[in-house]
Amino acid sequence: MARAPRPFTFTLTPSEVAEMEAPSGQGGHQSLHARIRSELAGGPAVTFDDEEMGELIRYMTQYGSGGFQGRLRRAFIRSLCEQIGARPI
To answer: Would 36 be classed as within a structural domain?
Structure first.
């Protein structure tokens, strides 16, 4: 019997939280941004399941250098590197 995958939980610093509090603007990212902001309303931690983690990584790496993509990188790169045991880039 397979175990359920462990969720990914990131605890953001105050400056990282501030990146996600910026206005959401327009584009295809609104649902991701709204979900992150909703979780951050309860504290500095955000949890992703496997599918959501894939969405986060795609927005951080594949969708250009728009304002939201840059804010995601600034908000989550430190925590993501910690999760995988890599040095921040």
So the answer is: yes
Angular region, 33: left φ>0, alpha ψ -120 to 50, beta rest: alpha
Amino acid at 61: T
Average pLDDT for residues 75-86, to the nearest whole number?
Answer: 86
pLDDT band per the 50, 70, 90 thresholds, residue 64: low
Q: Which residues of 62-80 are buried (b: 16+ CB within 10 A; e: fewer)?
A: eeeeeebbebbbebbeebb
Q: Is residue 25 part of a domain?
A: no
Q: Give the pair of three-digit tokens for residue 67.
A: 């304002």
Q: Residue 37 belongs to what domain range? A: 11-19+32-84
Residue type, 20: M
What is the average pLDDT score of the chain? 84
